[in-house]
Amino acid sequence: MAVITVFGATGYAGGHITDEALRRGHEVIAVNRTGSAEARPGVTPVAGSLDDEALVRDLAAKSDVLAVAVRSSVDGEPFLLRLVPSLLKAAAEGGARIGVVGGAGSLRVTEGGPRLIDTAEFPEAYKAEAGSHARVLDALRGADTDVDWFYVSPAAEFGAWVPGERTGVFRLGGDVLLSDAEGRSFISGADYAIALVDEIEKPAHRQARFTVAY
């Protein structure tokens, strides 16, 4: 059993990660700004934010994994990027692993091709969030640290508007967007969470990004 702190535990990805972790018998410290996560067996709700350095240090010392499922930008301005150094420092001091719920925008559409965010089809409304998340990944890759982090990019279609179902059947990839035979790139919240908790239980991507899709 692992102790997993989920930042953004009441959000779409964070909620699914919490549910999957509990399904497998892990203990979850569920963090959101109001502490409104459901109090149920295996869950400890905590009010707070990732930008509270003292809280992050405390939770890193209590946890095996810090799962970061928060937006990378707020009002169009980077939020998560500036917290990467303090997050890595807390994880190093506390001996915790970091798992980041990433974005799809930084994935290449083909091997050696452009990033999804740089294609003409990428929606303008999502560029601030996607661009900020891409910079988070760059910051993690460029950090001089021994912290064991991983970054999980979902498929292009991922979110509450396309919830899908829990199937347990999906593919993993690296830096290239995965699409099905019809050209659709999609993953349900539940199956994304399976892939992320699988990585917690059986680490295969150390200081690396991977992607999950059908």
From TrEMBL:
Top-level taxonomic group: Bacteria
Domain NAD(P)-binding: residue ranges: 8-156
One Pfam family from the record: NAD_binding_10
Organism: Streptomyces plumbiresistens
PANTHER family the record matches: FLAVIN REDUCTASE (NADPH)
Protein name, entry field: NAD(P)H-binding protein
Alphabetized Gene3D superfamilies for the sequence: NAD(P)-binding Rossmann-like Domain (3.40.50.720)
